[in-house]
């Protein structure tokens, strides 16, 4: 009984595609190289969302007032 050998890269056509090194899965020890390096950052404050909405609403109101004023001035 003979053992079949795995096909070489030239047999698979990898040489014609320019591939030099066969792709291999990442070893388990190298999988997460940044684990444990960075510190946990504090959660962002929730107070900015209402302030941002109020500011956006104020700008929209000012633009609408300006546009209405321009229409009234043309009439």
Automatic annotation (TrEMBL):
Give a Pfam family name.
Answer: DUF6480
Q: Which residues cross the membrane?
A: 47-74
- Record keywords: Transmembrane included? yes
Q: Report the protein name in the record.
A: Uncharacterized protein
Please note every region of biased composition (Polar residues).
31-41
InterPro entries, A to Z: DUF6480 (IPR045512)
Keywords, sorted A to Z: Membrane, Transmembrane, Transmembrane helix
Native organism is Streptomyces adustus
> Where are the stretches annotated Disordered?
1-41
